[in-house]
Amino acid sequence: MKKLIALTAVAMLASTANAGKKCNGTVILTSKPCQQSQVTSITTAHPAAGPVAAHSAAKPDIVDTAVGAGSFKTLVAAVQAAGLVDTLKGTGPFTVFAPTDEAFAKLPKGTVESLLKPENKAKLQAILTYHVVAGKVMAADVVKLSGAKTVQGQQVDIKVTNGKVTVDGANVLKTDIETSNGVIHVIDSVISPADKDIFDTAVEAGSFKTLVAAVKAAGLVETLKSEGPFTVFAPTDDAFAKLPEGTVANLLKPENKDELVAILTYHVVASKVLASDVVKISSAKTVNGKSASVKVNDAGVMIDSAKVIATEIETSNGVIHVVDSVILP
Predict the structure, then answer these.
(1) Structure pTM?
(2) Distance CA 83, CA 109 (A)
(3) pLDDT tens-digit readout, 223-240
(4) How far is CA 130 from CA 18, 52, 152, 195, 278, in A?
(5) What CATH architecture applies to the domain 198-323?
(6) SS3 126
(7) In the chain, which residues fall in CATH 2.30.180.10?
C-alpha cells in the first residue's frame, strides 16, 4: 500500500492582533477592541486571510480551527445547529473528516437548509458524527486502514489507490491539520451513514430475494427492522439454490414456520460484529441460541461451512456479511 503524501495544512486565521481572540467566550475575527457589539457568532464569522498571529501560543481546537480556515462555513453552521460545538471543543482527541463548503454545495438543492431546521437535528447529528472518529488518526495511520468506526456508530470505508485516499468515496484533499484536541483531514464530499435497516437493505440489494421471502414467511420482518443492533450472515439467492431441490419451497410452508425461524435466526447475532472483530473470534452465539463456528484460513473467513464473500454492508440497525451457503443449526 502506497504511503499517503501528507499535504501541508496552513490555517487561515485573522491577520490582525485581536483576530482569533474571544469576547465573552465567543470567537471574534475582527481587528477592533473586544466589545459586546463586536461578538461574532461562529455561524457568521468571516475570517481574514493571513498568517497566524505571531503571539499565538497553543493551537486552537477543532471548532476554532474550522472557523479560522474560512472554507468550512457550512460545516461550522451545521455543528452549531446540531448542538455539537461543546463536544468538538472538548478534550477529545478526535479525527474529523471535514467537508468543505464546496462539498456541501454538491448536495441536492435545499438539503443543507432542510438539515439545519430544528426538527431535523437528530439526522444532522448522525451525519456530522459520521465524519468523526474517536482518537487522533494521522495520515500515516489512515492509509493503513480499510475502515474506521465513527462516533455515529457505523464504519467508514477507507481506500488507497495510487497514493490517493478516499473515505466512503470522498477524496481526501488535505491531511494532518493538527488542533489542540485532534486532527482534521479535508474531504471533497459530504458522507452519510446508512439510513435503511437490515430488511430494507436486503430488499434493495436485489440478490437476497429468497432470504427476503423466507424472512416474511417466518414473521421476522419487524425483528430485522427493529433497533438492534444485529449482525446478519446473509445467504445469497445462489446460496439458497445450493440446497436440495424442493427444500426452500418446503420451508416456506406455514406448517414449517418453526423450522424456518430456527434456520434464519441461526444466521443472526444480537450485536454488531464488524469484519475486524469476526477474524478475532472462534465462534458467535446466534439469536437461535446455538453458536456458529468462525474460522479464518487461506480460503478466507468461514461461518460453519459457509464462506464470507462480502463484508460490512452497513445498515441503520446493524451490519450484513454475505455468505455463499445457507448454514444450518
Answers:
(1) 0.72
(2) 23
(3) 999 998 999 999 999 999
(4) 34, 30, 5, 12, 22
(5) Roll (2.30)
(6) helix
(7) 22-187, 198-323
